[in-house]
Amino acid sequence: MLLIQNIRLSRILRNTWQVDLIMIASCTAAYLVRAYLIAHHFEIPSIIPTVLGTAIAFFIGFNNNQAYDRWWEARKIWGALVNDSRSFARALINYVDDDDPTVKKMVYRHIAFLYALKANLRGAVDEIYIKYLTEEDLKEIEKHNNAHNALLNIQSRDLQKLSKSNAIDGFRFMEINEMLTRFSDSMGMSERIKNTIFPTTYTYLTKVFIWLFVVSFTLVISQSAGVASIFLGWMIGFVFVSTQINGMSLINPFENNSAGVPLNQITRTIEINLLQMLEEEEIPEPVKPINDEYIL
Asked: What pTM does this model have?
């Protein structure tokens, strides 16, 4: 997630330089075609880039709006996980006898659940969660394709044991169980966002229309601007392309990039909070921003 208010132009160019080169080549080709092939035969109506530009603006606006909705929904889901995680640990620590080792095991297991979920959403291998699990837990989750779901199942089983041993009463059992249900809901919503592909036709057609617009704009403007139309065509196209790329960077909010939801930071924050609630001595350091620009 970006932390700075102003983005350096060099950063934008690093992300778009390949497209910029292709666009300059396209504008150059359009200018040469107009100057040497069609200039003496007919003129390109200016209405063409006007209509295309309007249509593209609607397409890009819609795509970017939907992309931000996906990103914001993902951020709200993990914001809820922060709140529910703190409530879950607080309930276990204060509602169950301090001498019961199950409390620490369940809080540790919840930290492992978060790291396992994060690794799954980012399609990465994250072994941090292993240190928070017992050998018995590790053997059990090896049987499952979905490790974080398996961990929730173990949590429910241990909660049931606490209830049967009268370590918690029925009302507190229902409250903590409701939190496990919310964890499952957050997990499912996160997986839905990750596994639901943004309609390919939306992004594909937008790219095609942008190229048509850049070429047609260059053809029209070259009638009055001459060779300068190459630069003007690129400049106008750069605005459309940059805006579209900006929106598309939010399409997959769980990707490990500067535009994604900062899962590393959120997970580490929960980890620190829960360990401090357990009065642990070894507390990890918070995740720090990269180059003071963004945090993962």
From this structure: 0.86
